[in-house]
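Sequence design from tokenized structure. All designs in this work follow the same two-part layout: the structure record, then the generated sequence. An example of the structure record is given first.
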């Protein structure tokens, strides 16, 4: 892994922490807060690619587990991972990887639509597929109830996917000469360009 890869991974872990600075919006009927952080995996995977995006989310999760108050609302520590939202937190790693895979596949012909679909597939569909069963298991609620309650978050997540897609496409336009092999290379290098 190059120095550049390490810097980008750390940068996107820091971006996740910055997204946590936005105060969570609590919906009274549901115990899960609406946060800006769910957009982080979409951005990380879509901009960094599958491997680096997932590693940035893994780094963020490790920092939260170490006790840093990086989650929205200033939360952190191991106790978070025993709660009903932990499935979504663990799911961020998988969501970033999946989003990155789709974006990598379509990088040469990336449009807003394909970037949006990648962000929605990884950051909504896959994330919910991990988070909702966790809510059901830990919260002791039927899966259908957990899914119905989570449906209230879909409109906001679609907006986040749109914002992430716009950022992904802007990065694609800013670096049109970068080939996919250069963008997600894994050869060791210490360059920072």
């Amino acid at each position: 892994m190059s120095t550049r890869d390490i810097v980008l991974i750390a940068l996107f872990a820091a971006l996740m922490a910055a997204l946590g600075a936005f105060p969570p919006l609590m919906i009274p009927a549901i115990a899960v807060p609406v946060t800006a952080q769910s957009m982080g995996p979409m951005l990380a995977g879509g901009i960094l690619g599958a491997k680096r995006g997932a590693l940035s989310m893994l780094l963020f999760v490790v920092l939260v587990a170490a006790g840093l108050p990086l989650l929205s609302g200033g939360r952190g520590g191991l106790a978070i991972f025993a709660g009903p939202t932990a499935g979504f937190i663990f799911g961020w790693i998988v969501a970033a990887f999946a989003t990155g895979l789709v974006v990598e596949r379509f990088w040469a012909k990336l449009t807003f639509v394909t970037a949006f679909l990648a962000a929605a597939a990884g950051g909504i569909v896959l994330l919910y597929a991990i988070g909702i069963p966790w809510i059901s298991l830990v919260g002791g609620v039927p899966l259908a109830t957990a899914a119905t309650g989570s449906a209230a978050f879909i409109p906001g997540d679609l907006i986040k996917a749109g914002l992430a897609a716009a950022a992904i496409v802007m990065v694609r336009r800013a670096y049109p000469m970068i080939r996919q092999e250069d963008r997600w290379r894994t050869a060791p290098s210490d360059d920072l360009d």
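The chain has a mean pLDDT of 88. We note this feature because it recurs in several other targets discussed in the main text.
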